[in-house]
Amino acid sequence: MGFGGRYKVRSRVYEPGGKTPYRISRSKIDLFQECPRCFWLDQRFGVGRPDMPAFSLNVAVDELLKREFDVHRVNGTPHPLMKAYGLDAVPFSHTKLELWRDALRNGIEYLHPETNLSVRGGIDDVWVTPQNELLIVDYKATSKRKEIELYDHYKRQVEVYQWLFRKNGFKVSDTAYFVYVNGNAGAPAFDGKLEFDAELIAHKGDDSWIEGTLRKIKDVLEGDDIPAVGECDYCPYREAAGKTLYAKMKKPKKLPGSKMIKHEKASESTGSLF
Ligand code: SF4
Q1: Could you tell me if residue 101 is left (phi over 0), alpha (psi between -120 and 50 degrees) or otherwise beta?
Q2: What is the pTM of this model?
Q3: Residue 116 falls within a domain, yes or no?
Q4: Measured in Å, how far apart are the chain's first and last C-alpha atoms?
Q5: Ligand 1 center–CA 136 separation, angstroms
């Protein structure tokens, strides 16, 4: 039995011992942090997690924020949010900005010589201070009544961008910013519009974990040992589902008008479940 639906196993995977630099995105580093086993299945065998549907409202908010900050980039002026938070900076102009923002195909990239891993990540924005220090910026959209908290994977995300810009020769501030817009779900009515409050949240980044993580990633990519699992409910689920199907398929079947037969290929049929 093959995979149903649109799920596909990728054919482009990491080849152990290969000499060509291997491109790895920021989100795959995050996958490794989350669960080395899922990362290994994805990168060594092309068995990635199924794609999630795109959150089109978030995509729209990102796009509108980009446009809004781009107006100030062209004019060399601070955005009102920067003024409101007393931040002395303007959006940074650079010929490669659109490449850096292209998370799917490009992003900012650095070849880490020790591991031969070419790390890349697509940024939302970058601002610059009068001292020529870059501030890495990420846009986030949510709708919450509680105080907004920064998840660890958000922090790791901007820390990888800080590291990438430093490795590309830029002076980068330790402080990164999240432009957080919060949809007001408490409004009396929808009236065809959703209103957002915008906040600027600072995070003091620390990129010292990145190179050690790249070494661990390299070891996992080169190795044949099945790495440890992270913490999620899918592995116990897959195991339970696989064992149940395997047990069912192993049971002798009686076909109408025939003798009992054994399902000899049961183990092959369930191989994809573990
Ligand atoms: S624990 Fe979750 S994330 Fe890790 S391999 Fe299993 S399914 Fe993947």
Answers
A1: alpha
A2: 0.85
A3: yes
A4: 14
A5: 31
Residue 65 belongs to some domain of the structure: yes
- What is the extent of the structural domain holding 175? 55-207
97-116 burial, b at 16+ Cβ within 10 Å, e below that, comes to beebbeeeeebbbbebeebe
The number of domains in the chain is: 1
List the structure tokens of 31. 């996958």
pLDDT digits (tens, 9 = 90+) for 178-212: 999 888 877 877 777 888 888 999 999 999 999 99
Which atom of ligand 1 lies nearest, measured to the CA of 234?
Answer: 7
Pocket of ligand 1 (CB under 6 A): 35, 37-38, 229-230, 232, 234-235
Q: Determine, yes or no, domain membership for 274.
A: no
DSSP E strand stretches across the chain: 22-25, 90-91, 108-112, 117-121, 125-128, 134-142, 175-183, 196-204, 253-254, 260-261
Helices 152-167 and 210-222: crossing angle in degrees, nearest 10, is: 100
Per-residue pLDDT tens digits for 126-178: 999 999 999 999 999 888 777 778 899 999 999 999 999 999 999 999 999 99
Tell me if 72 is assigned to some domain. yes
